[in-house]
Design a protein that fits this description.
There is one protein chain. The chain has 3 helices and 4 strands. It has a domain at 34-114: YhbY-like (Translation Initiation Factor IF3, 2-Layer Sandwich). The chain has 132 residues and is of the alpha+beta class.
Amino acid sequence: MLPAPTRVERGKRSPVATPRHTGYEGAVTSNFTGKQRRYLRALAHELKPVVQIGHAGVTPGVLREIDSALLTHELIKIRVGTEAPVEPEDAAEPVEAGTRSAVVQVIGRTLVVYRRRKKDPKIVLPKAEPKK
């Protein structure tokens, strides 16, 4: 039986660590068009992170805070701290699954997350153009 993987200090890789991604390659739950994704990224540009993922990683408490922030704001930024046991690209999938949202962008250590409000949505996405 293999020993359980332990947290590795930043900059050092354990033999069981997965290679770091060069860009966000996770499965986004929504099918945004490029135009819609650009629109959301533009809106998020001036936002400050409202939730931080710390040394405990993506916990149920963090997911509750993200869910609460999405109810209020629809579009938020999440900061993944340097002490977090997960890389930002790896944190995107549990955040999407745990909050029924979509990660629009991963840039540096920041995630941009969107979930449309069912009641009184503030953000109106551009219409998807039909394919020719």
